[in-house]
Write a structure and sequence with these properties.
The protein is built from six helices and six strands. The protein has 183 residues and is of the alpha+beta class. It has a three-stranded antiparallel β-sheet, covered by helices on one side. Strands 4-6-5 form a three-stranded antiparallel β-sheet.
């Protein structure tokens, strides 16, 4: 099976007041195309004016959002190869001389297939087992709060609070968290 990549183009078909839309993918080997259905037989009045304009103009930002709709893509494709890396940007809202509490808010433009425990372990230089222990004893809390929050994919709007007051390496963890360089 050859990999397909988005062409960045939308194909539209109108039938009266109904509209079909597809995102066109191309085989990276032979150039053959595959049209991923975005929707079928939608009435034009059911679409927002902004969406209709984005479709008609092949708006690159709108198209990019569709390309990274992993759940939608997985419903239509046999296999989805996802990149394991993400570009991270850290912004420190308030630096602390003595790190006792670390609060993290995640923002993501696109859906990522990156588990929270892997992101935190890599960015805070903490082992995943230590994160699990912190969560188990109530020192790591997530919002939304779930018992398995560490095993779920990160989503925009997630908030994490970590109580580091009893941790010997809290300064190193705080420094890793506040390191502004992107990975």
């Amino acid at each position: 099976m050859k990999p397909f990549k988005s062409s960045g183009k939308i194909r539209l078909n109108a039938n009266g007041k109904r509209l079909d839309a597809w995102l066109v993918y191309k085989c990276s080997d032979c150039g053959k195309t595959w049209n991923r259905t975005l929707f079928e037989r939608r009435t034009i009045r059911d679409l927002s004016p902004a969406t209709l304009e984005a479709l008609q103009g092949n708006d690159p930002d709108w198209v990019r959002l569709q390309e990274f709709d992993l759940d939608g893509l997985k419903r239509k494709a046999l296999r989805v190869d996802e990149l394991p890396d993400a570009i991270l940007r850290k912004e420190v809202a308030q630096g602390k001389a003595s790190w006792t509490t670390l609060e993290i808010e995640l923002a993501s433009v696109f859906a990522l297939n990156l588990r929270l425990d892997r992101l935190l372990a890599s960015e805070l230089a903490i082992s995943r087992s230590k994160l699990k222990v912190l969560h188990g004893c109530g020192k790591l809390r997530g919002h939304p709060d779930r018992s398995d929050v560490l095993r779920h994919r990160i989503k925009a709007g997630m908030r994490i609070a970590i109580d580091l007051s009893d941790e010997d390496d809290r300064d190193a963890i705080g420094e890793a968290a506040s390191n502004p360089k992107a990975k």
